[in-house]
Amino acid sequence: MKAQSLNHFVFPGVRANRPISDMTFGKVITAHGGGDATTHGFRSTFKDWATEETEHENYVSEAALGHAAGDAVERAYRRGDALKKRRALMDDWARYLAGDSPAKAAA
To answer: Which of 33, 79, 93, 98 has a CA between 20 and 30 Å from the CA of residue 71?
Structure first.
């Protein structure tokens, strides 16, 4: 991906420095015979897996989804991006999708 990337997004949008839109992703799903699959369904599947099958902390999977986790006080004090932890989570997700992951991935 790095060799052909347009920017820092895994799925870059057509506009400079923007991710792919939900509408575009939905059109890709439909074009490839996705049936009833939805963008939200992909995100929900990831969250279910991260919560039920791994020991990764909730705020890490929330950050991976682009969500603001915790209440206002927690968010005020948690200012890091958890990038190292998000990388580990996404590496586990990739192994899971490839069929190489144990039932409980290490955090």
So the answer is: 93
